[in-house]
Inverse folding.
């Protein structure tokens, strides 16, 4: 039962993360054609790279290795040998090398085009997220705006949107790596399905062993996000209260507080770098062990004679070795994305509209006060406050009257003024302007007649 609960919790967590990424990706809908082009370039680049590694077969033959016997029992090796059958033996190595270079240059061109388009789309997504966050600051209700500290808005707007966009295109890089690895796997299957199944099983075990580091990177990334908010808050608060800090002689206290938070923040960045590097180094060691194991036991799982064994195993190992950088990069990207999940969730949570209130503008024009302003049974309560700020307030102010609001601190004077300017709306009751509910008036007209 506990195992089922854990698996269900992980599944829900992964579903939530996927929804968050899809929420961000939808911002690029108008660039769908570029997305299709990037996908096509990735496929062509992967196919070109996969085909180029097969040229190791004629290269081996050009170096004097016997591949004809192996080709008799392996279709892919026979196919490659047929492509170079008309090439003289003394030109075979040079010809295969030239074709290999051409294919490598072609793959590099397609890969660079794909990377350039990804960089463009990432920059557009970053800009789009910044614009939407800025619009949220301007459009959500003043009450909802104050639920976050100014420093939180500042950090999300200026740094976390970039991390979120980077995480999205980190997933694109993961998809690109998976496509390339898939092409390699197809090639490896053509060379030896037995060795490919063994290598795939061992790689899955390796990735499962490294999943603990990935989860740890996610936790450290969330801690980095929280402490970064705290550092940003200290910075903004120090600048806003610079006069009071000096008058109260609190420089040393503020300095100690800020430096402590900054030290913790820098430590989390170091931890993330160590986790990324440790994951890469451990995987590299395990991969080398995998290659050595394949070399040792390759002969025992292939039912071929010695003459066929050497070219098949050597070809398989060389192709597998060429695939390994993509595997290493895939794992590094996986760890990096886990570290940025907190930024993705933070940006998505801020941009979600379902849990936020927005100021409703009225449609009735306002050309100036004719009679009076009335508060009728107006009550108001701030979010996360137990006490009402205003309760059943009834007040009438006639045109031309001068009224002073007098009371102790916290009695609701500023709240009443804020409600007149529609920074807040009543929780109950209504404010009438010449008999018309204030919420029904065109806000620009109304504010244009208020003096400060």
């Amino acid at each position: 039962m506990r195992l089922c609960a854990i698996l269900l919790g992980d599944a829900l967590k992964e579903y939530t993360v996927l929804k968050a990424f899809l929420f961000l990706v939808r911002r690029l809908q108008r660039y769908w054609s570029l997305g299709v082009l990037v996908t096509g370039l990735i496929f062509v680049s992967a196919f070109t790279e996969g085909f180029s590694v097969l040229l190791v077969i004629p290269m081996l033959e050009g170096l004097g290795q016997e591949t004809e016997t192996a080709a008799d029992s392996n279709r892919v090796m026979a196919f490659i040998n047929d492509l170079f059958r008309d090439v003289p033996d003394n030109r075979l190595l040079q010809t295969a090398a030239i074709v290999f270079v051409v294919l490598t240059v072609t793959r590099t061109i397609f890969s660079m085009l794909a990377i350039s388009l990804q960089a463009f789309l990432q920059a557009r997504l970053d800009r789009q997220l910044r614009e939407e966050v800025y619009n949220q600051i301007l459009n959500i209700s003043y009450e909802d705006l104050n639920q976050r500290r100014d420093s939180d808005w500042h950090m999300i707007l200026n740094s976390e949107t970039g991390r979120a966009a980077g995480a999205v295109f980190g997933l694109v890089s993961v998809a690109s790596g998976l496509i390339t690895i898939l092409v390699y796997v197809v090639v490896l299957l053509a060379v030896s399905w037995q060795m490919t199944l063994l290598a795939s099983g061992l790689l899955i075990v390796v990735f499962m062993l490294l999943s603990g580091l990935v989860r740890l990177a996610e936790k450290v990334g969330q801690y980095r996000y929280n402490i970064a908010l705290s550092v940003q808050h200290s910075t903004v608060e120090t600048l806003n209260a610079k006069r009071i800090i000096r008058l109260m002689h609190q420089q040393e206290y503020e300095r100690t507080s800020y430096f402590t938070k900054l030290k913790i923040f820098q430590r989390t960045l170091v931890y993330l770098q160590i986790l990324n590097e440790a994951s890469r180094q451990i995987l590299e060691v395990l991969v080398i062990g995998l290659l050595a194991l394949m070399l040792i036991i390759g002969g025992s799982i292939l039912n071929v004679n010695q003459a066929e064994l050497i070219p098949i195993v050597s070809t398989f190992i060389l192709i597998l070795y060429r695939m390994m950088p993509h595997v290493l990069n895939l794992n590094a990207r996986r760890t990096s994305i886990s570290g940025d999940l907190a930024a993705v969730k933070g940006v998505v949570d801020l941009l979600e509209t379902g849990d936020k209130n927005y100021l409703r503008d009225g449609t009735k024009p306002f050309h100036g006060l004719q009679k009076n302003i009335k508060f009728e049974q107006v009550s108001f309560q701030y979010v996360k406050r137990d006490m009402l700020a205003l309760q059943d307030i009834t007040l009438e102010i006639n045109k031309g009257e001068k009224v002073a609001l007098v009371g102790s601190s916290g009695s609701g004077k500023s709240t009443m003024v804020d409600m007149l300017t529609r920074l807040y709306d009543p929780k109950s009751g209504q404010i009438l302007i010449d008999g018309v509910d204030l919420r029904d008036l065109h806000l620009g007209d109304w504010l244009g007649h208020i003096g400060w």
The first helix runs from residue 2 to 25. Strands lie at 372-380, 390-398, 428-433, 436-437. The domain at 372-447 is CATH 3.40.50.300 (Rossmann fold).
